[in-house]
Design a protein that fits this description.
The chain is of the alpha+beta class. Helix content is 36%, strand content 26%. The strands form 6 sheets. It has a 5-stranded mixed beta sheet. Strands 17-16-18-15-19 form a 5-stranded mixed beta sheet, sandwiched between helices. β9 and β10 form a beta hairpin. The longest helix is centred in the first third of the chain and has 23 residues. The structure holds prephenic acid (PRE). The site of prephenic acid has 14 residues, from α8 and β18. GO terms for molecular function: hydro-lyase activity; ligand-gated monoatomic ion channel activity.
Length: 316
């Protein structure tokens, strides 16, 4: 009887020591929250859970991978956190964030419940070239960076301006189109607005959508004119045409698009834009394999004249 008890005790001790050894060998990360025997870390806006021991968190590497939107594999005794590219290929889906409010790049049609536009076609082509399905995820200009950080999508596409500010928090692909900020006005005002100072007058009202580079430009450069913030970007060109606001300062590409479709509108100064900028696709930081693939894809699209075809279809 005593012998059996001693054997059981030794077995229990043995299992306990093994468990502690396995626990201790889990990869580490600093905990910011949690206590007792659970811990949580935040990685790129996602949380991963594990155990805490003496102020150190032990987070299973699978959890880390999940939080980063990446797969984890084990080879030659080493854990490998794979690129997002491998995960996309394995899952057979790429999640593309897009705002759906910026013609001609991205437009969500509430009736057909589908997206269309230059970058929607580009995203579909991207899916085809990757050999995966495309799942569009709605985002917005004010929440774009947060939605990316929270891993709501793998890449954002839809007339996004490359900017040094955004590159501090995310990563842009190589550019695929050049443009600049310019005014969309009523045709009858063609001779009235010939420069930014003609526009920045107390009797002028500028319509602007929140959260993007249009608003940033207006905040930085407009001192005297009235500014009306319009939640739905798609409403602004019509508001200009109907005289509800006088000017929309936006990307020259968009100004041209609306002016060529509505005879009441005029795209001014598109050859002398207020700024010079480029569009790019927005990705997470720290994943060179995925970023390189996307850059090569952008280069191939240019080389094969695919962006030219999209321009002919959507921008002319
Ligand atoms: O923020 C950006 O990157 C954009 O280029 C998007 C942006 C904007 O500047 O607000 C550009 C033009 C459209 O009218 C709406 C959105």
């Amino acid at each position: 009887m005593l012998k059996r008890r001693i054997v059981t005790l030794i077995t229990v001790l043995f299992i306990l020591c093994g468990g502690l050894w396995a626990w201790g060998s889990l990869p580490q990360a600093k905990a910011f929250k949690g206590g007792g025997d659970t811990a949580t870390v935040e990685l790129d806006g996602q949380t991963a859970g594990g155990l805490e021991k003496n102020g150190t968190a032990y987070i299973p590497v699978d959890e880390v991978g999940k939080a980063l939107g990446r797969n984890v594999s084990k080879k030659d005794g080493k854990y490998l956190i794979q690129s997002r590219l491998d995960r996309i290929l394995k899952k057979g889906v790429i999640r593309v964030g897009t705002t759906g409010d910026y013609r001609p790049f991205t437009y969500y049609d509430p009736e057909s419940k589908t997206y269309e536009g230059y970058d929607i076609d580009a995203a579909k082509r991207l899916g085809k070239d990757l050999g995966v399905k495309v799942e569009f995820v709605k985002t917005s200009w004010p929440t774009l960076m947060e939605d990316l950080r929270h891993n709501k999508f793998d890449i954002a596409m839809g007339g996004i301006s490359r900017s040094l500010d955004r590159e501090k928090k995310a990563h842009f692909s190589k550019p695929y189109i050049d443009f600049g900020k310019s005014p969309l006005i009523r045709k009858e005002d063609k001779d009235k607005y010939k420069s930014l100072s003609d526009i920045d007058q107390p009797d002028v009202t500028i319509g602007v959508n929140p959260g993007g580079t249009n608003e940033k430009f207006v905040k930085e450069h407009i001192k005297q004119a009235k500014v009306k913030v319009v939640q739905d970007n798609l409403d602004i060109p019509k508001m200009v045409a109907e005289g509800k606001v006088d000017v929309m300062i936006t990307d020259s590409v968009e100004a041209r698009y609306y002016a060529s479709r509505d005879p009441r509108l005029y795209a001014a100064l598109t050859d002398h834009t207020f700024t010079k900028s480029q569009k790019g696709y927005l990705m997470h930081r720290g994943d060179p394999d995925f970023q390189n693939w996307i850059d090569l894809w952008v280069a191939e699209m240019k080389l094969q004249g695919e962006f030219d075809k999209l321009e002919a279809k959507w921008l002319e």
